[in-house]
Design a protein that fits this description.
Elements: E1 2-7, H1 13-16, E2 24-26, E3 35-40, E4 43-48, E5 55-62, E6 66-71, E7 82-83, H2 84-105, H3 112-130, H4 134-170, E8 175-180, H5 182-187, H6 190-196, E9 199-202, H7 206-209, H8 219-231, E10 235-237, E11 241-242, H9 250-253, H10 259-277, E12 283-288, H11 300-317, E13 322-327, H12 343-351, E14 359-365, H13 380-391, E15 397-402, H14 429-446, E16 450-455, E17 472-473, E18 477-478
Parallel strand pairs: 1-7, 8-9, 8-16, 9-10, 10-12, 11-12, 12-13, 13-14, 14-15, 15-16
Antiparallel strand pairs: 1-4, 2-5, 3-4, 5-6, 17-18
Helix pairs in contact: 2-3, 2-4, 3-4, 4-14, 10-11
Protein backbone atom coordinates (compact mmCIF):
# COMPACT_ATOMS: atom_id res chain seq x y z
CA UNK A 1 0.00 0.00 0.00
CA UNK A 2 1.31 3.44 -0.91
CA UNK A 3 0.72 6.77 0.81
CA UNK A 4 1.44 10.30 -0.40
CA UNK A 5 0.76 13.37 1.71
CA UNK A 6 0.24 16.93 0.57
CA UNK A 7 -0.06 20.13 2.54
CA UNK A 8 -1.86 23.09 0.98
CA UNK A 9 -2.73 26.71 1.56
CA UNK A 10 -5.11 28.07 2.65
CA UNK A 11 -6.13 25.29 5.05
CA UNK A 12 -9.85 26.09 4.79
CA UNK A 13 -9.77 25.17 1.11
CA UNK A 14 -10.68 21.65 2.27
CA UNK A 15 -14.12 22.96 3.26
CA UNK A 16 -14.61 25.46 0.43
CA UNK A 17 -13.50 23.14 -2.38
CA UNK A 18 -14.91 19.63 -1.76
CA UNK A 19 -13.68 18.46 -5.19
CA UNK A 20 -10.28 17.92 -3.55
CA UNK A 21 -11.70 14.59 -2.39
CA UNK A 22 -11.76 13.47 -6.03
CA UNK A 23 -7.96 13.68 -6.37
CA UNK A 24 -6.15 10.60 -7.64
CA UNK A 25 -2.68 9.29 -8.48
CA UNK A 26 -1.42 7.89 -11.77
CA UNK A 27 1.64 5.94 -12.87
CA UNK A 28 3.93 6.32 -15.86
CA UNK A 29 1.31 5.00 -18.30
CA UNK A 30 -1.23 7.65 -17.19
CA UNK A 31 -3.58 4.98 -15.85
CA UNK A 32 -5.20 6.05 -12.55
CA UNK A 33 -4.58 4.01 -9.46
CA UNK A 34 -7.48 3.36 -7.17
CA UNK A 35 -7.12 6.19 -4.68
CA UNK A 36 -8.61 6.86 -1.27
CA UNK A 37 -8.39 10.49 -0.13
CA UNK A 38 -8.30 11.57 3.51
CA UNK A 39 -8.88 15.34 3.52
CA UNK A 40 -8.30 17.57 6.52
CA UNK A 41 -7.71 21.33 6.91
CA UNK A 42 -4.41 22.02 5.16
CA UNK A 43 -3.57 18.34 4.60
CA UNK A 44 -4.51 15.73 2.00
CA UNK A 45 -3.46 12.10 2.27
CA UNK A 46 -3.76 9.85 -0.80
CA UNK A 47 -3.71 6.10 -0.25
CA UNK A 48 -3.29 3.61 -3.09
CA UNK A 49 -2.76 -0.12 -3.46
CA UNK A 50 0.45 0.62 -5.39
CA UNK A 51 3.62 1.67 -3.61
CA UNK A 52 5.40 3.50 -6.44
CA UNK A 53 6.24 6.96 -7.67
CA UNK A 54 3.30 8.71 -9.30
CA UNK A 55 1.69 11.98 -10.22
CA UNK A 56 -1.24 13.61 -8.44
CA UNK A 57 -4.25 14.85 -10.43
CA UNK A 58 -6.63 17.27 -8.74
CA UNK A 59 -9.42 19.67 -9.60
CA UNK A 60 -8.03 23.01 -8.42
CA UNK A 61 -9.31 26.63 -8.36
CA UNK A 62 -7.28 28.96 -10.59
CA UNK A 63 -7.90 32.73 -10.13
CA UNK A 64 -9.97 34.29 -12.93
CA UNK A 65 -10.04 30.95 -14.78
CA UNK A 66 -12.13 28.79 -12.44
CA UNK A 67 -11.68 25.12 -11.60
CA UNK A 68 -9.32 23.12 -13.79
CA UNK A 69 -7.85 19.64 -13.69
CA UNK A 70 -4.14 20.01 -12.88
CA UNK A 71 -1.33 17.51 -12.33
CA UNK A 72 2.00 17.40 -10.54
CA UNK A 73 5.17 15.92 -11.96
CA UNK A 74 6.06 12.35 -10.95
CA UNK A 75 6.70 12.28 -7.21
CA UNK A 76 8.39 9.68 -5.03
CA UNK A 77 6.79 8.34 -1.88
CA UNK A 78 8.11 9.93 1.30
CA UNK A 79 6.99 10.56 4.85
CA UNK A 80 7.21 14.34 4.63
CA UNK A 81 4.18 16.00 2.95
CA UNK A 82 4.71 17.69 -0.40
CA UNK A 83 3.59 21.30 -0.73
CA UNK A 84 0.66 20.91 -3.13
CA UNK A 85 0.63 24.58 -4.15
CA UNK A 86 4.27 24.35 -5.18
CA UNK A 87 3.96 20.97 -6.88
CA UNK A 88 1.03 22.06 -9.03
CA UNK A 89 3.03 25.05 -10.23
CA UNK A 90 6.02 22.80 -10.89
CA UNK A 91 3.83 20.40 -12.89
CA UNK A 92 2.28 23.13 -15.04
CA UNK A 93 5.63 24.87 -15.56
CA UNK A 94 7.16 21.59 -16.75
CA UNK A 95 4.27 21.15 -19.22
CA UNK A 96 4.65 24.68 -20.62
CA UNK A 97 8.42 24.44 -20.96
CA UNK A 98 8.11 21.02 -22.60
CA UNK A 99 5.58 22.13 -25.22
CA UNK A 100 7.58 25.26 -26.01
CA UNK A 101 10.77 23.25 -26.47
CA UNK A 102 9.03 20.54 -28.48
CA UNK A 103 7.36 22.92 -30.90
CA UNK A 104 10.41 25.12 -31.34
CA UNK A 105 12.44 22.02 -32.21
CA UNK A 106 9.86 21.36 -34.91
CA UNK A 107 10.62 24.81 -36.32
CA UNK A 108 7.82 26.92 -34.83
CA UNK A 109 9.07 30.25 -33.43
CA UNK A 110 6.93 31.69 -30.62
CA UNK A 111 8.98 34.87 -30.50
CA UNK A 112 10.95 36.72 -27.87
CA UNK A 113 7.90 37.75 -25.83
CA UNK A 114 6.91 34.13 -25.15
CA UNK A 115 10.45 33.14 -24.20
CA UNK A 116 10.63 36.16 -21.88
CA UNK A 117 7.34 35.11 -20.23
CA UNK A 118 8.70 31.63 -19.59
CA UNK A 119 11.87 33.03 -18.00
CA UNK A 120 9.80 35.31 -15.75
CA UNK A 121 7.66 32.40 -14.63
CA UNK A 122 10.72 30.29 -13.87
CA UNK A 123 12.06 33.12 -11.68
CA UNK A 124 8.69 33.42 -9.94
CA UNK A 125 8.65 29.67 -9.32
CA UNK A 126 12.15 29.76 -7.83
CA UNK A 127 11.06 32.56 -5.52
CA UNK A 128 8.05 30.47 -4.51
CA UNK A 129 10.27 27.48 -3.68
CA UNK A 130 13.13 29.21 -1.86
CA UNK A 131 11.94 32.54 -0.50
CA UNK A 132 8.16 32.64 -0.09
CA UNK A 133 6.82 32.65 3.44
CA UNK A 134 3.90 30.47 4.50
CA UNK A 135 1.58 33.46 4.22
CA UNK A 136 2.71 34.16 0.64
CA UNK A 137 2.58 30.64 -0.81
CA UNK A 138 -1.12 30.62 -1.64
CA UNK A 139 -1.10 34.00 -3.41
CA UNK A 140 2.15 33.48 -5.33
CA UNK A 141 1.27 29.96 -6.45
CA UNK A 142 -2.20 31.11 -7.53
CA UNK A 143 -0.72 33.89 -9.65
CA UNK A 144 1.84 31.47 -11.15
CA UNK A 145 -0.84 28.96 -12.08
CA UNK A 146 -3.03 31.60 -13.69
CA UNK A 147 -0.16 32.92 -15.80
CA UNK A 148 1.06 29.44 -16.72
CA UNK A 149 -2.39 28.28 -17.86
CA UNK A 150 -2.82 31.44 -19.91
CA UNK A 151 0.65 31.10 -21.44
CA UNK A 152 0.13 27.41 -22.20
CA UNK A 153 -3.18 28.15 -23.91
CA UNK A 154 -1.59 30.99 -25.87
CA UNK A 155 1.24 28.76 -27.13
CA UNK A 156 -1.16 25.99 -28.12
CA UNK A 157 -3.55 28.36 -29.87
CA UNK A 158 -0.82 30.15 -31.82
CA UNK A 159 0.55 26.85 -33.03
CA UNK A 160 -2.94 25.47 -33.75
CA UNK A 161 -3.93 28.55 -35.75
CA UNK A 162 -0.86 28.18 -37.94
CA UNK A 163 -1.41 24.47 -38.59
CA UNK A 164 -5.13 24.99 -39.10
CA UNK A 165 -4.40 27.52 -41.84
CA UNK A 166 -2.13 25.02 -43.56
CA UNK A 167 -4.70 22.20 -43.31
CA UNK A 168 -7.41 24.47 -44.70
CA UNK A 169 -5.22 25.37 -47.68
CA UNK A 170 -4.67 21.66 -48.36
CA UNK A 171 -8.36 20.83 -47.95
CA UNK A 172 -7.73 18.56 -44.96
CA UNK A 173 -10.02 20.08 -42.37
CA UNK A 174 -11.93 17.65 -40.12
CA UNK A 175 -15.55 16.95 -40.91
CA UNK A 176 -17.94 18.95 -38.71
CA UNK A 177 -21.19 17.37 -37.56
CA UNK A 178 -24.02 18.35 -35.25
CA UNK A 179 -26.43 15.95 -33.60
CA UNK A 180 -30.02 16.73 -34.53
CA UNK A 181 -33.39 15.32 -33.60
CA UNK A 182 -35.93 14.65 -36.38
CA UNK A 183 -37.86 17.69 -35.13
CA UNK A 184 -34.80 19.93 -35.59
CA UNK A 185 -34.83 19.17 -39.31
CA UNK A 186 -38.38 20.56 -39.55
CA UNK A 187 -37.79 23.76 -37.56
CA UNK A 188 -34.23 24.86 -38.38
CA UNK A 189 -33.13 26.42 -41.66
CA UNK A 190 -31.26 23.57 -43.44
CA UNK A 191 -29.16 26.04 -45.42
CA UNK A 192 -27.61 27.32 -42.19
CA UNK A 193 -26.83 23.77 -41.11
CA UNK A 194 -25.27 22.94 -44.47
CA UNK A 195 -23.19 26.13 -44.40
CA UNK A 196 -21.47 25.24 -41.14
CA UNK A 197 -21.57 21.45 -40.93
CA UNK A 198 -20.45 18.79 -43.35
CA UNK A 199 -23.06 16.36 -42.04
CA UNK A 200 -25.83 15.96 -39.50
CA UNK A 201 -25.94 13.11 -37.03
CA UNK A 202 -29.47 11.94 -36.30
CA UNK A 203 -30.12 11.49 -32.60
CA UNK A 204 -32.81 8.85 -32.13
CA UNK A 205 -31.93 6.85 -29.00
CA UNK A 206 -32.63 3.20 -28.33
CA UNK A 207 -35.40 4.20 -25.90
CA UNK A 208 -37.36 5.68 -28.82
CA UNK A 209 -36.52 3.09 -31.47
CA UNK A 210 -37.50 0.11 -29.31
CA UNK A 211 -39.88 1.43 -26.63
CA UNK A 212 -41.20 -2.08 -25.99
CA UNK A 213 -39.07 -5.20 -26.14
CA UNK A 214 -39.01 -6.50 -29.71
CA UNK A 215 -41.38 -3.77 -30.98
CA UNK A 216 -39.62 -1.19 -33.13
CA UNK A 217 -40.82 2.33 -33.96
CA UNK A 218 -39.06 3.35 -37.17
CA UNK A 219 -41.31 6.24 -38.20
CA UNK A 220 -39.29 9.14 -36.75
CA UNK A 221 -35.98 7.87 -38.11
CA UNK A 222 -37.54 7.04 -41.49
CA UNK A 223 -38.92 10.56 -41.83
CA UNK A 224 -35.66 12.13 -40.68
CA UNK A 225 -33.59 10.16 -43.20
CA UNK A 226 -36.00 11.02 -45.98
CA UNK A 227 -35.79 14.69 -44.98
CA UNK A 228 -31.97 14.59 -45.04
CA UNK A 229 -32.01 12.99 -48.47
CA UNK A 230 -34.47 15.62 -49.70
CA UNK A 231 -32.23 18.41 -48.39
CA UNK A 232 -29.11 16.67 -49.72
CA UNK A 233 -27.53 16.62 -46.25
CA UNK A 234 -24.82 14.09 -45.50
CA UNK A 235 -26.08 11.97 -42.64
CA UNK A 236 -24.83 9.95 -39.72
CA UNK A 237 -26.74 8.25 -36.91
CA UNK A 238 -25.96 7.76 -33.25
CA UNK A 239 -25.13 7.01 -30.62
CA UNK A 240 -27.26 3.90 -30.97
CA UNK A 241 -26.26 2.55 -27.55
CA UNK A 242 -25.57 5.06 -24.80
CA UNK A 243 -25.57 3.63 -21.30
CA UNK A 244 -27.39 6.59 -19.75
CA UNK A 245 -30.82 6.47 -18.18
CA UNK A 246 -32.67 8.61 -20.73
CA UNK A 247 -31.09 6.86 -23.73
CA UNK A 248 -31.95 3.26 -22.83
CA UNK A 249 -35.48 1.79 -22.89
CA UNK A 250 -37.07 1.35 -19.50
CA UNK A 251 -37.60 -2.36 -20.03
CA UNK A 252 -33.86 -2.97 -20.48
CA UNK A 253 -33.10 -1.83 -16.93
CA UNK A 254 -35.17 -4.75 -15.65
CA UNK A 255 -32.40 -7.02 -16.98
CA UNK A 256 -29.46 -4.93 -15.77
CA UNK A 257 -28.31 -7.67 -13.39
CA UNK A 258 -28.26 -10.27 -16.18
CA UNK A 259 -25.29 -9.40 -18.36
CA UNK A 260 -25.74 -12.16 -20.93
CA UNK A 261 -29.33 -11.08 -21.55
CA UNK A 262 -28.26 -7.44 -21.89
CA UNK A 263 -25.71 -8.49 -24.52
CA UNK A 264 -28.36 -10.47 -26.37
CA UNK A 265 -30.81 -7.54 -26.43
CA UNK A 266 -28.02 -5.17 -27.51
CA UNK A 267 -27.03 -7.50 -30.36
CA UNK A 268 -30.64 -7.82 -31.53
CA UNK A 269 -31.19 -4.07 -31.48
CA UNK A 270 -28.00 -3.24 -33.36
CA UNK A 271 -28.63 -5.85 -36.00
CA UNK A 272 -32.19 -4.61 -36.54
CA UNK A 273 -31.11 -0.98 -36.99
CA UNK A 274 -28.09 -1.72 -39.17
CA UNK A 275 -29.94 -4.18 -41.39
CA UNK A 276 -32.61 -1.56 -42.07
CA UNK A 277 -30.42 1.51 -42.62
CA UNK A 278 -26.85 0.45 -43.44
CA UNK A 279 -27.29 1.17 -47.15
CA UNK A 280 -28.45 4.76 -46.44
CA UNK A 281 -26.09 5.82 -43.66
CA UNK A 282 -22.32 6.12 -43.96
CA UNK A 283 -21.39 7.29 -40.44
CA UNK A 284 -22.44 5.36 -37.34
CA UNK A 285 -21.74 6.26 -33.76
CA UNK A 286 -22.39 2.78 -32.48
CA UNK A 287 -22.04 3.38 -28.76
CA UNK A 288 -21.08 6.05 -26.26
CA UNK A 289 -19.70 5.92 -22.70
CA UNK A 290 -19.58 2.13 -22.44
CA UNK A 291 -16.36 2.56 -20.46
CA UNK A 292 -17.85 4.73 -17.71
CA UNK A 293 -21.08 6.23 -16.35
CA UNK A 294 -23.92 3.85 -15.46
CA UNK A 295 -22.17 1.16 -17.52
CA UNK A 296 -19.89 0.74 -14.50
CA UNK A 297 -22.49 -1.59 -13.01
CA UNK A 298 -20.63 -4.16 -15.16
CA UNK A 299 -16.98 -5.01 -14.58
CA UNK A 300 -14.32 -3.98 -17.09
CA UNK A 301 -14.23 -7.29 -18.96
CA UNK A 302 -18.00 -7.25 -19.34
CA UNK A 303 -17.96 -3.69 -20.69
CA UNK A 304 -15.33 -4.72 -23.22
CA UNK A 305 -17.43 -7.73 -24.16
CA UNK A 306 -20.47 -5.46 -24.64
CA UNK A 307 -18.42 -3.19 -26.91
CA UNK A 308 -17.31 -6.25 -28.88
CA UNK A 309 -20.95 -7.23 -29.39
CA UNK A 310 -21.62 -3.77 -30.81
CA UNK A 311 -18.59 -3.89 -33.11
CA UNK A 312 -19.40 -7.40 -34.34
CA UNK A 313 -22.86 -6.29 -35.46
CA UNK A 314 -21.36 -3.37 -37.41
CA UNK A 315 -18.65 -5.58 -38.87
CA UNK A 316 -21.31 -7.98 -40.17
CA UNK A 317 -23.90 -5.50 -41.44
CA UNK A 318 -22.23 -2.10 -42.03
CA UNK A 319 -18.77 -3.02 -43.22
CA UNK A 320 -18.78 -0.28 -45.88
CA UNK A 321 -19.58 2.46 -43.36
CA UNK A 322 -17.39 4.48 -41.03
CA UNK A 323 -18.33 3.40 -37.52
CA UNK A 324 -16.85 4.33 -34.19
CA UNK A 325 -17.33 4.04 -30.44
CA UNK A 326 -17.08 7.11 -28.19
CA UNK A 327 -15.05 7.03 -24.97
CA UNK A 328 -16.33 9.01 -22.00
CA UNK A 329 -14.07 10.61 -19.38
CA UNK A 330 -10.87 10.27 -21.46
CA UNK A 331 -8.71 11.23 -18.46
CA UNK A 332 -10.20 8.22 -16.62
CA UNK A 333 -11.28 9.93 -13.41
CA UNK A 334 -13.80 7.14 -12.85
CA UNK A 335 -11.02 4.52 -12.66
CA UNK A 336 -9.62 6.07 -9.49
CA UNK A 337 -12.63 4.87 -7.51
CA UNK A 338 -12.66 1.24 -8.63
CA UNK A 339 -10.49 -1.54 -10.04
CA UNK A 340 -10.27 -0.41 -13.65
CA UNK A 341 -7.43 0.28 -16.08
CA UNK A 342 -9.01 3.42 -17.51
CA UNK A 343 -10.22 4.76 -20.84
CA UNK A 344 -6.94 4.49 -22.77
CA UNK A 345 -6.66 0.78 -21.95
CA UNK A 346 -10.33 0.32 -22.91
CA UNK A 347 -9.77 2.03 -26.27
CA UNK A 348 -6.51 0.18 -26.90
CA UNK A 349 -8.18 -3.19 -26.31
CA UNK A 350 -10.94 -2.34 -28.79
CA UNK A 351 -8.41 -1.17 -31.38
CA UNK A 352 -6.68 -4.57 -31.17
CA UNK A 353 -9.90 -6.58 -31.28
CA UNK A 354 -9.78 -7.22 -35.06
CA UNK A 355 -13.47 -6.32 -35.27
CA UNK A 356 -12.85 -3.49 -37.71
CA UNK A 357 -13.15 -0.46 -35.41
CA UNK A 358 -12.85 2.43 -37.90
CA UNK A 359 -12.52 5.33 -35.48
CA UNK A 360 -12.51 6.36 -31.84
CA UNK A 361 -14.73 9.03 -30.35
CA UNK A 362 -13.41 11.21 -27.52
CA UNK A 363 -15.95 13.02 -25.36
CA UNK A 364 -14.93 16.51 -24.21
CA UNK A 365 -17.55 18.22 -22.05
CA UNK A 366 -16.43 21.50 -20.51
CA UNK A 367 -17.90 23.38 -17.58
CA UNK A 368 -20.28 20.89 -16.01
CA UNK A 369 -20.43 19.89 -12.37
CA UNK A 370 -17.60 17.61 -11.23
CA UNK A 371 -20.23 15.25 -9.82
CA UNK A 372 -22.01 14.81 -13.16
CA UNK A 373 -20.02 11.81 -14.36
CA UNK A 374 -18.05 13.90 -16.86
CA UNK A 375 -14.38 14.79 -16.89
CA UNK A 376 -13.06 17.82 -15.07
CA UNK A 377 -12.60 20.91 -17.21
CA UNK A 378 -9.06 21.08 -18.57
CA UNK A 379 -7.09 23.79 -20.35
CA UNK A 380 -6.05 23.51 -23.99
CA UNK A 381 -2.55 22.31 -23.12
CA UNK A 382 -3.77 19.35 -21.06
CA UNK A 383 -6.35 18.54 -23.73
CA UNK A 384 -3.63 18.48 -26.40
CA UNK A 385 -1.50 16.06 -24.35
CA UNK A 386 -4.51 13.79 -23.88
CA UNK A 387 -5.25 13.75 -27.63
CA UNK A 388 -1.62 12.84 -28.31
CA UNK A 389 -1.91 9.79 -26.06
CA UNK A 390 -4.99 8.54 -27.93
CA UNK A 391 -3.34 9.33 -31.27
CA UNK A 392 -0.84 6.57 -30.48
CA UNK A 393 -3.65 4.06 -31.16
CA UNK A 394 -3.41 5.02 -34.85
CA UNK A 395 -7.17 5.45 -35.27
CA UNK A 396 -9.03 8.45 -36.68
CA UNK A 397 -10.43 10.46 -33.77
CA UNK A 398 -13.92 11.93 -33.60
CA UNK A 399 -14.09 14.68 -30.99
CA UNK A 400 -17.51 14.96 -29.36
CA UNK A 401 -17.98 18.41 -27.79
CA UNK A 402 -20.42 19.89 -25.29
CA UNK A 403 -20.35 23.05 -23.19
CA UNK A 404 -22.97 25.28 -21.52
CA UNK A 405 -22.76 28.04 -24.15
CA UNK A 406 -26.30 29.28 -23.56
CA UNK A 407 -27.72 30.88 -20.39
CA UNK A 408 -31.08 29.19 -21.13
CA UNK A 409 -31.68 25.77 -19.60
CA UNK A 410 -32.51 23.03 -22.05
CA UNK A 411 -32.21 19.75 -20.21
CA UNK A 412 -33.15 17.78 -17.13
CA UNK A 413 -29.61 17.65 -15.79
CA UNK A 414 -28.48 20.64 -13.75
CA UNK A 415 -25.32 22.68 -13.82
CA UNK A 416 -24.13 23.60 -10.35
CA UNK A 417 -23.50 27.32 -10.61
CA UNK A 418 -21.15 29.40 -8.51
CA UNK A 419 -17.77 28.59 -6.99
CA UNK A 420 -18.56 24.91 -6.39
CA UNK A 421 -18.79 24.36 -10.14
CA UNK A 422 -15.45 26.05 -10.64
CA UNK A 423 -16.63 29.02 -12.65
CA UNK A 424 -14.47 32.16 -12.58
CA UNK A 425 -15.88 34.70 -10.18
CA UNK A 426 -17.71 37.48 -11.99
CA UNK A 427 -17.74 35.67 -15.35
CA UNK A 428 -20.87 34.41 -17.12
CA UNK A 429 -20.60 30.64 -17.58
CA UNK A 430 -21.85 30.74 -21.18
CA UNK A 431 -19.20 33.31 -22.13
CA UNK A 432 -16.41 31.20 -20.61
CA UNK A 433 -17.73 28.10 -22.38
CA UNK A 434 -17.92 29.92 -25.72
CA UNK A 435 -14.27 30.98 -25.39
CA UNK A 436 -13.32 27.37 -24.64
CA UNK A 437 -15.20 26.22 -27.74
CA UNK A 438 -13.27 28.66 -29.91
CA UNK A 439 -9.96 27.34 -28.59
CA UNK A 440 -10.84 23.66 -28.73
CA UNK A 441 -12.04 23.96 -32.33
CA UNK A 442 -8.65 25.40 -33.26
CA UNK A 443 -6.89 22.55 -31.47
CA UNK A 444 -9.09 19.87 -33.07
CA UNK A 445 -8.61 21.32 -36.55
CA UNK A 446 -4.82 21.34 -36.10
CA UNK A 447 -4.55 17.66 -35.15
CA UNK A 448 -3.88 15.48 -38.22
CA UNK A 449 -5.48 12.43 -36.58
CA UNK A 450 -8.79 14.23 -35.84
CA UNK A 451 -11.17 13.16 -38.60
CA UNK A 452 -14.33 14.83 -37.33
CA UNK A 453 -15.79 17.12 -34.66
CA UNK A 454 -19.35 16.55 -33.40
CA UNK A 455 -21.35 19.10 -31.40
CA UNK A 456 -23.63 17.49 -28.80
CA UNK A 457 -27.00 18.77 -30.10
CA UNK A 458 -28.57 21.49 -32.18
CA UNK A 459 -31.97 22.29 -30.71
CA UNK A 460 -33.24 22.88 -27.20
CA UNK A 461 -35.82 20.07 -27.42
CA UNK A 462 -33.12 17.52 -26.70
CA UNK A 463 -33.24 16.24 -23.12
CA UNK A 464 -29.88 14.83 -22.21
CA UNK A 465 -26.89 15.17 -19.99
CA UNK A 466 -25.66 18.46 -21.53
CA UNK A 467 -27.99 21.27 -20.49
CA UNK A 468 -27.43 24.75 -21.96
CA UNK A 469 -25.53 23.34 -24.94
CA UNK A 470 -28.04 23.95 -27.76
CA UNK A 471 -26.84 25.95 -30.76
CA UNK A 472 -30.39 26.92 -31.72
CA UNK A 473 -33.25 28.20 -29.57
CA UNK A 474 -36.79 28.76 -30.74
CA UNK A 475 -37.51 32.47 -30.92
CA UNK A 476 -33.84 33.34 -30.39
CA UNK A 477 -32.18 31.85 -33.45
CA UNK A 478 -28.64 30.53 -33.65
CA UNK A 479 -26.02 31.05 -30.97
CA UNK A 480 -22.95 33.10 -32.07
CA UNK A 481 -20.83 30.03 -31.27
CA UNK A 482 -22.11 28.57 -34.55
CA UNK A 483 -19.46 30.66 -36.32
CA UNK A 484 -16.72 28.47 -34.81
CA UNK A 485 -17.87 25.57 -36.99
CA UNK A 486 -16.87 25.54 -40.63
CA UNK A 487 -17.75 23.07 -43.34
CA UNK A 488 -14.59 21.37 -44.69
Amino acid sequence: MGVMRFSFEPPDLAERWPALREAYLTGFEHAPWRTWVDLRPGLMQCITEVSESGGLHVYWPVPELGGLGLATTTLAERLEPYDLNVELVRGKLARVCEIQRQLEEEGFDFGQAARSSVRQLIKQFLHLVYYATADEIADISADCLKRLVQLGDELIRRYAQCVRTQRRALGRMPLTLVRVTPEDLETVDPQVIARHFGAVQLLVPWSELEPEQGEYAWDRLDRALARCEQLQLNVGVGPLVCWEKLALPDWLWLWADDFETVCSFTRDFLRAVLARYASRVRIWELASRLNCGPALLFDMNQRLQLAAVVLQAAHDLASRSFYYITIGQPWSEYAARMDDCGSLFFADTLSRSELGLRGLGIELAFGYSTGSGLSWSRDLLETTYMLERFAALDLPLVISLAAPISPTANGKAAIVSGDTAGWPSGAAPHEVAARWLEGIMEVAASRPNVAAVVWSHLGNQHLGMYPHAALFHDGEGFHPALEHFERP
